[in-house]
Amino acid sequence: MPTTDKVWFITGASSGFGRAFARHAIARGHRVVATARAPEKLDDLVQLAPECVAAVRLDVNRLADADTAVAAARQRFGRIDVLINNAGFAVVGALEETSDADLRAQMETNFFGAMAVTRAALPLFRAQRFGAIVNISSMGGQMSFPGFSAYSASKFALEGASEALAQEMAPFGVKVLIVEPGAFRTELVGSAMREMPQIAAYADVVGPTRAFAHDMHQTQAGDPAKAAAAIEAAIEAKDTPLRLVLGSDAVDAIRAHAQRLLAELAGWEETARATAFDG
After folding, report:
1. Which residue among the candidates 137, 138, 144, 162 is catalytic per the annotation?
2. pTM
3. Which of 43, 149, 221, 271 is most buried, by CB atoms within 10 Å?
4. All domains of the chain, ordered by start, with CATH?
5. Over the stretch 200-225, which tens digit does the pLDDT of each residue have?
């Protein structure tokens, strides 16, 4: 990226991670395009640096909003250096408890919404030949737990698209970073969590997940401000990782999951390799 004064474009900036990212960027002297469905909720961010912060309406579920918001960013600041796809929410409930409408809504916001904003910005990134696209996933983007089938599905999809996108954008000098936080003190399990109607048969297997989500709200160990600093360090690094895991809980869980995957692969390798045509 050519300057130290960057332009950050952040979705879902009215609360949680998005607000923390915006405040971090403002404090660092960057210019910020803070977006939200209700831009009036961003007024306090604008007041922190009126010449450097633009509050823009963006509902990631409205396809036209993405093009309009990216155009507004370009008109105001001329470019986008860092795009952070952060807007999202969580569905908690067993798959059978999750309606088709709720499953589709989860995918629309967390996956299709992020893809719409990204596609709107890609022509600008290609023309610039620099920049970074940061997709906020989760430790649930590499593994899942009872009750989080819909949420993890949306994050698995986001990560799959991001892996391909990273390779597609590399020739244009644009980085792609997948961020996989553990439990951070945001609204994900508060106002941003939708709980599905309960089926008694799943009480023992999904009940602990529901209780864990409720009990950890506003007690999570992760500090969103430190996450913002870690993300900036990663995208400014010479060798930016494809994935950035954040939080000790996420590091431990993802490492254990990867070890189980490798053990399972080894255990069934002979069977896997024996599926070719004979001769």
Report:
1. 137
2. 0.94
3. 149
4. 7-249 (3.40.50.720)
5. 999 999 999 888 887 777 778 789 99
